[in-house]
């Protein structure tokens, strides 16, 4: 009889450890810094081409209290949208208080620079740790929140265009696309039907279409007129606050083009940047803002610093808040997870 050594037994394939959360966070942080550096380099290059003296003169017009006002208006947007997230979470039945909901919402801003902002789904991970709810149960929360943003921004853009003396090229199509997207996501029957037709037409991705149908049925919780009306008003106030900040900035820099035009340009550029799919709309939003301001007769010596300042006090301010609260949310969710497992 031939003896077989245990050392001759076939070896199991090597197991590759899953990437550590710290590694993913470092990667996202480096991506954020790289994008920021590219935008800053582009703006510096454009400012150098148009003359440093004019740009510096425009920046010198602003004082610290004016920067503080811009940040406060941005913070107003985040607080109101955080309140809306809390309302939706409560309507979904999540057993979390307002503190946890606000922590999740604001901490998720750290991932705003991921493509399509999919990194903000980290909020779902925190919720799963703290409640045990699977992604399928919390997906409607993400869908209705994003749809509410589209609806609010589409309405603001449409109203601003109506009150503007001159229109913005492409403004109406972007408004229509935003409102249609919001309508589809917030109408459960329509979304369910689209998923059914899509599955029948393609015959593929059955699990994906099944998840969309389940999410559509869950969205019925938010379709009540009272809920949608209240959350729509909250979103309108929040996004208008940032658009009004852009108006104030232009006034302070001596380029008053009117509230309606300033708000329309800010919202249009934000939506256009998002439609490019670039992380945080970086690059596309800035280019659209500078181009639209130029069409309104605002020189590059003003439009460039105005664009840089408003993006720093909105998008990058939100990311800064997210980076501060991200580790807090991680620690809190892990503590809650351990508590649930020990019960």
Question: Could you explain the architecture of this structure?
Answer:
The chain is mainly alpha-helical and 343 residues long. The chain has one domain (54-187, 223-338). 76% of the residues lie in helices and 0% in strands. The chain contains 13 helices and no strands. The chain has helices at residues 21-50, 52-60, 64-92, 98-107, 122-131, 135-163, 171-186, 188-202, 206-218, 225-252, 259-275, 284-295, 300-342. α3 (64-92) packs antiparallel against α10 and α6 (135-163) packs antiparallel against α7. The chain is globular. It starts with 20 loop residues before the first helix and ends with a helix. Mean pLDDT is 76; it is low at 1-19.
Topology:
Blueprint: H1 21-50, H2 52-60, H3 64-92, H4 98-107, H5 122-131, H6 135-163, H7 171-186, H8 188-202, H9 206-218, H10 225-252, H11 259-275, H12 284-295, H13 300-342
Helix pairs in contact: 1-13, 2-13, 3-4, 3-6, 3-10, 3-13, 4-13, 5-6, 5-13, 6-7, 6-9, 6-10, 6-11, 7-11, 8-9, 10-11, 10-13, 11-12, 12-13
Estimate the mean pLDDT confidence: 76
Large-scale geometry: globular
The string of secondary-structure elements, in order, is HHHHHHHHHHHHH
Distance between the termini: 55 Å
Count of helical stretches: 13
| Low-confidence parts | 1-19
Task: Provide the gyration radius in Å.
Answer: 23 Å
Helix/sheet category? mainly alpha
When the domains are counted, the total is 1
Counted beta strands: 0
Helix content: over 70%
**Beta fraction of the residues?**
under 5%
**Largest beta-sheet details:** none
Subcellular location: Cell membrane
Membrane topology: Multi-pass membrane protein
Keywords: Cell membrane, Membrane, Transmembrane, Transmembrane helix
Main location: membrane
């Amino acid at each position: 009889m031939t003896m077989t050594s245990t050392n001759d037994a076939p070896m199991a394939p090597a197991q590759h450890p899953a990437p550590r959360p710290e590694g993913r966070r470092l990667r996202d942080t480096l991506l954020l810094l790289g994008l920021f550096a590219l935008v800053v380099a582009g703006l510096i290059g454009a400012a150098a081409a148009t003359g440093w003296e004019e740009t510096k003169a425009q920046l010198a017009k602003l004082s610290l209290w004016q920067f503080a006002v811009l940040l406060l208006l941005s913070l107003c947007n985040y607080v109101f949208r955080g309140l809306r997230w809390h309302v939706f979470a409560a309507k979904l039945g999540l057993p979390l208080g307002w503190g946890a909901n606000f922590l999740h919402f604001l901490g998720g801003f750290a991932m705003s620079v991921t493509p399509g902002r999919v990194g903000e789904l980290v909020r779902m991970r925190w919720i799963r740790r703290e409640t045990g709810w699977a992604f399928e149960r919390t997906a409607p929360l993400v869908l209705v929140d994003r749809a509410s943003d589209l609806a609010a921004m589409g309405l603001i853009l449409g109203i601003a265009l109506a009150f503007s003396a001159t229109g913005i090229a492409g403004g109406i199509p972007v408004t229509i696309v935003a409102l249609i997207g919001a309508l589809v996501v917030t109408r459960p029957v329509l979304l369910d039907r689209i998923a059914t037709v899509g599955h029948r037409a393609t015959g593929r991705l059955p699990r994906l279409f099944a998840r969309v149908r389940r999410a559509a049925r869950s969205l019925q919780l938010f379709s009540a007129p009272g809920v949608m009306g209240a959350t729509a008003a909250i979103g309108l106030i929040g996004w208008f606050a940032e658009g009004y900040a852009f108006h104030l900035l232009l006034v302070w820099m001596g380029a008053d083009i009117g509230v309606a035009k300033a708000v329309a340009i800010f919202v249009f550029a934000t939506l256009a940047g998002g439609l490019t799919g670039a992380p945080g709309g970086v690059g596309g939003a800035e280019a659209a803002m500078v181009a639209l301001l130029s069409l309104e007769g605002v020189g590059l010596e003003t439009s460039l610093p105005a664009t840089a300042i408003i993006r720093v006090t909105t998008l990058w301010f939100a990311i800064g808040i997210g980076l501060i609260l991200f580790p807090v949310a991680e620690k809190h969710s892990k503590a809650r997870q351990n508590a649930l497992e020990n019960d």
